[in-house]
């Protein structure tokens, strides 16, 4: 981590605007506090991209944008890095954040930062309109830092080193694992699916009822593990001997969430995050 910090601090000194990419479904859990700290230290403005907004709950995303747009030096925008028209707005938004670089003599230097798997490579390729960065649904595909010209008077540098998430709360680890931002083996699928299940029952019950054809009244009485069991029964996940294959059931629920087939879901809102922190601090 010390070397990642050093690399990030050096890189930050040589740029004008930070493009921080987070996952719109879990914007705080998928941010790295070192980015805020270094950016404030260097007084660098930030374009905060709530990416994968095509998968996130639009109401939650709008609440997060209000939340971040109140922070000094931050402009928050929801995008999908897979949508060319949305990506095309990014350079102009960065220009607005660094008007002092707009006299035609100095290039505008932008740097993309963020934890693994939030969509940095997808964004970089879309901005450059060619494939320069490897995209993968496995975390940690981006490895070598590079600076490239992005049209006249603009350069783009990718994330310096690996910026791992900082997991201060158990819920952050679960949200990241559910969204596949941390490795598959780091946490047990069944536990992660049960955590996800609790959120889905509390806030997205109609989506669950529709996807797995389960009675809403019955779902309302379930906890996370009971939901995983019900999904397993519905999908015929059985082990030899006839018992339920809960690991398989957990993987189905997680994959459905990751693929967006349950509908547009956010795992945290500014309000649920404040409640989660208050509860964890009180414990
Ligand atoms: P990086 O590790 O931050 O560079 O993330 P990648 O660019 O490799 O993306 C991780 C995964 O998320 C890949 O499977 C991408 O196709 C996917 N992805 C990236 N951006 C979006 C987006 O806006 N919407 C959706 N649905 N998927 C995205």
From TrEMBL:
Domain G: 109-167
Compartments (UniProt record): Cytoplasm
Annotated GO MF terms: GTP binding; GTPase activity
Binding site for GTP: 51-54, 117-122, 161
A family per Pfam: MMR_HSR1
UniProt GO BP: translation
Gene3D superfamilies to which the protein is assigned, alphabetical: 1.10.1580.10, P-loop containing nucleotide triphosphate hydrolases
Chief location: cytoplasm
Alphabetical keyword list: Cytoplasm, GTP-binding, Nucleotide-binding
InterPro entries per UniProt: GTP-bd (IPR006073), GTP-bd_ortho_bundle_sf (IPR023179), GTP-bd_ribosome_bgen (IPR019991), GTPase_MTG1 (IPR016478), P-loop_NTPase (IPR027417)
CDD domains listed in its UniProt record: YlqF
Top-level taxon: Bacteria
GO CC terms of this entry: cytoplasm
Function: Required for a late step of 50S ribosomal subunit assembly. Has GTPase activity.
NCBIfam families, sorted: GTPase_YlqF
Family of this protein: Belongs to the TRAFAC class YlqF/YawG GTPase family. MTG1 subfamily.
This protein's name: Ribosome biogenesis GTPase A
Organism (species): Thauera chlorobenzoica
Origin organism lineage: Bacteria, Pseudomonadati, Pseudomonadota, Betaproteobacteria, Rhodocyclales
């Amino acid at each position: 981590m010390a070397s990642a910090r050093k690399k990030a601090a050096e890189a930050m000194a040589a740029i004008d605007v930070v493009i921080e990419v987070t996952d719109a479904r879990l914007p705080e859990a998928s941010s790295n506090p070192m980015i805020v700290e270094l950016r404030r230290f260097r007084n660098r403005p930030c374009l905060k991209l709530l990416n994968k907004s095509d998968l996130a709950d639009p109401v939650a995303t709008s609440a997060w944008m209000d939340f971040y747009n109140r922070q000094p030096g931050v402009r928050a925008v929801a995008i999908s890095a897979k949508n060319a028209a949305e990506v095309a707005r990014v350079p102009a938004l960065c220009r607005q954040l660094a008007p002092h670089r707009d006299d035609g003599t100095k290039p505008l230097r932008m740097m993309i930062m963020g934890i693994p798997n939030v969509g940095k490579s997808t964004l970089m390729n879309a901005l450059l309109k060619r494939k320069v960065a490897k995209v993968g649904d496995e975390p940690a595909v981006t490895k070598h830092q590079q600076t490239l010209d992005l049209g006249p008077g603009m350069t783009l540098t990718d994330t310096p080193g690996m910026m791992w998430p900082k997991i201060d709360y158990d819920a952050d680890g679960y949200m990241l694992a559910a969204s596949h931002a941390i490795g598959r083996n780091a946490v047990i699928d069944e536990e992660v699916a049960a955590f996800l299940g609790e959120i889905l029952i509390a806030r997205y019950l109609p989506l669950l009822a529709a996807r797995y054809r389960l009675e809403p009244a019955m779902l309302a009485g379930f906890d996370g593990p009971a939901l995983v069991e019900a999904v397993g029964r519905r999908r015929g996940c059985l082990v030899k001997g006839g018992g339920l294959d809960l690991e398989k059931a957990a993987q189905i629920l997680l994959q459905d969430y990751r693929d967006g087939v349950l509908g547009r879901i956010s795992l945290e809102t500014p309000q649920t995050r404040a409640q989660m922190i208050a509860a964890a601090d009180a414990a």
